[in-house]
Fold each of these.
Amino acid sequence: MKSITSRLLISLMVLFSANSYSQQVNSLVGNWEVITIGELTITEKNKPTLTFLEDGKIAGSTGCNKYNAIFEQSNQAVEISRVVSTRRACAQDSVMMQEIAFLNAIRTVSQLEYHNDSELTLINQNEKLTIVLKKLEG
């Protein structure tokens, strides 16, 4: 009887853990726009975007170029890796500086904080640089 109870308990723990991970990823899934990168002013016309996909990938725009990356999440911890982007010249220096700041920032993200269903903050390892995101409808 103990063996059956133990197996049932382990099965429930695995199922709960899988559901918890699925819920975490599902809350990220969707289109987000960048509101701030540290204290950098984001150009309204060229806002960077992130699209978190269900398969653990990210796609988006830096405001100038397209990029892709991989993300892994465990509770509040997150790692973004394998960031690759196109290399088109940006029309304005301010947009190029924004792109550099954004790509450097997402490469150092280590944790996230949900503020509600529509706002998310990505924080780097030193807890000094943050990226604030707003979820886009649709």
Amino acid sequence: MPIEQQTTELDDSLRVIALELADDLAELARVRSWADRLLQDLPEGQRVDALMVVDELASNALRHGKPPRQVRLLRKRDWLSVEVDDTCIDPACPRPPSSDGGHGLKLVAATSVAWGQWQRPTGKTVWAEIHLTRAPEPGHPR
């Protein structure tokens, strides 16, 4: 079962929330539910896009990476970064689409404003950044 870490307030505008992943593809449903709960304030289209990015990066880590694994959401008012750590030292690389996959990182690239990875001697972090807008509050158009 995943373990959610406490929110860390790095300053007044950045929130970092982390979730540890067990070594089981069934974790993807929990990751989606966790992220959906945290992103409820986003307009529907942006929330769906952000959840797709979370799902794809977590799925890749579970399928191709090695434990331990962690998903992080870094959030500011108009910006979201999704980061997924694993201990596999092989870089995440888009592969040609087929019936077995190969679409995930292309979807991440199309949905995010930037994505990439940081390699470490002990593994990697794959990340994607998404620009956000908030839905206007009732009676207060933007």
Amino acid sequence: MLGERWLKVAFSYLYIRDFDRAMEAFRRAIACEPDNPACYFHGSVTALRNEDWEPALAWAEAAARLAPDNVLYQEHLCRVRALWAQRQTADEAAAGADSPNTPQTAQTPEGGAIEKEE
């Protein structure tokens, strides 16, 4: 019951675009009702919007685990995983661009590394 109240508080903060306080309210909702997948799902959506990747992924996984028949939660988890992978790829590319003396490598289909010439 208290978790539902914290969800309403979180939604109120979202309405006024105070995303940090909304995140805190979702954390409290989860703490009060750790078996409520809605708390995790809505918290994950907000975390994703904030590009707060760790809770976005962890909470999406929790929502999908707690409600395996909920198609929306499953689709959201797929989306978070895809965006996480894109972010990781972009971060790796940026790290490679920051160090021009480091050789770049590509993976072969067999999993071996191929060094790219610059």
